[in-house]
Write a structure and sequence with these properties.
The protein is elongated, with a radius of gyration of 31 Å. α9 packs antiparallel against α10. It is 55% helix and 17% strand. By secondary structure, the protein is an alpha+beta fold.
Length: 436
Amino acid sequence: MKNKKLLLFWMIILLVIAGIIVIIKKPTKLGLDLVGGSRIVLEAQTTDTIAKITPDMMSSLQFAIENRVNALGVAETVVQQTGEKRLLVEIPNISDPAKAKEFLGETAELEFKKPLDGKYGATGWASTGLTGKDVRKALISTNPGGQWVVSLEFNDKGTKKFGELTQQLVGKPMAIFFNGELQSAPVIQEPILGGHAQISGGDSGFAYEEAKKMVDLLNAGALPVPAKIIEESLVGPTLGADSIAKSKTAGVIGIGLVMIFMLLYYRLPGFIADIALIIYSILVFAVFKIVPVTLTLAGIAGFILSIGMAVDANILIFERTKEELKAGRTMFTAINAGFDRAFTSIFDSNMTTIITCVILYFLGTSIVKGFALTLIIGVLISMFTAITVTKNFMHLLFGAGQLKHPGWFGIKQSEIGKAYEATETKKEKAKFGILD
């Protein structure tokens, strides 16, 4: 039993070391309110075929823009409708606003065309009905010559269309246009029925940046209506460097006071809880960097709230353990019983929090999602540290004997066994039919 606990102890230590390495090596992603970023206003445009911008069109446009922002590799963005046909886009910590502008406004129209009357020029192609909407996924790859190409995987409808089209064009070229420009026109040698195609970018192939841009745009999807950028600006952090520094100081003071309280009230178990709290903070921050989570003020609030829940779990456990010690149990029995009796309360409270956070994550805005995600991660890891880390450390430190120094638990020697004696007295009275 002791060997298993020692093994678990060293596994926890290795996990902490791995967490510290992740924290040191990986950068922290901060949100717009902490590091600033880019603010862009887009306006939906009417065309010859789109006479009026409807609410459904704006919802589709908002969804497409969110996908494109995600393809840029940033999170915690704000994409919200302002007015009847405008969208406000806020992108935190973006290094190249010009790239974001260009990427958000592109139409991403992919078209497959067949030759018209034997002509092979850009004006000599007929539309076929096969477009980027029929593509399930686009990937960057290389051809046998080492050139960058864009590989396409069609959805079920697109696979059928592409198969029928290649059957019709055996021995003839099929042109691939992207945003109105001819990319390549390979001659179809045989029907392609597997639902896969490749865009080569002509004889010289694509540069990697060109291929990646096309893949990102295709995966994000075409804009349902044209959108024009009418306003752009760079945004500084709304909190400011001084406010961020004060927030850090307040956080350190708050956590420090909690740790001092645990140490003074619960003595040695409180010290163990403080160690578990430090381990908890390391693991949570490491997970934030692995996911990665973009930290905003709301996300930090979720993290701090989860710290309170981690401390609350330890308080429940220690109070239950003290009750068992007062009843005269051995250290091993009291610790196990304390954890077992507290587990139901800890699990129920944490599960209700997680359920609420899941609802917030799927129904809330980007900022609310950040709060919900950090709180979910924090709650899950707090359960691990409270149940596994604290319990393992207490068993290793206190062993399985009697409590020799009650002061370590913040209880008096005179309190030990009183609850046990009262229980035994009741049992004896009940045996002889004596009622209190």
